[in-house]
Amino acid sequence: MAKLKTGRHTSAIKAQRQAERRTSRNKGLIKAVRLSTKTAQASVKNKDGKADENFKKASSSIDKAAKKGVIHWKTAARKKSRLAKKVNAAK
Fold it and tell me: At 27, which helix (H) or strand (E)?
């Protein structure tokens, strides 16, 4: 690919495209983590029987985000630990 007349390097343009793709992918994973965590916390607060089930879903989404490098593995462990504490206290 030839250099553009605007003075921007082609490598910078490619890096920008890659960053946009990664950002959109990461936003989806982060949104899934936030949504599943909220659902689990709401089920604990409402004291319905789905707290364990929702905790498993939240834990799974947190692990997936950590595996892909979207969130740090220690952040993932902390989130899961705090959520597990809440679920166990509600029992």
Answer: helix 10-46
> What SS3 state is found at 49?
coil
Count of Cβ atoms closer than 10 Å to residue 87 Cβ = 20
User: What's this model's pTM, rounded to 2 decimal places?
Assistant: 0.82
Q: Report pLDDT for 1.
A: 53
Asked if residue 89 lies in contact with residue 47, where contact means CB atoms within 8 angstroms, the answer is no
Q: Which domains does the chain have, with CATH numbers?
A: 10-90 (1.20.58.110)
Question: Which residues contact residue 59 at a Cβ distance below 8 angstroms, ignoring those fewer than 6 apart?
Answer: 80, 83, 84
The tokens for 68 are 């892909």
Q: Which residue has the tokens 């390097």?
A: 9
Distance of CA 33 to the CA centre of its chain: 4
E-strand spans in the chain? Answer: none
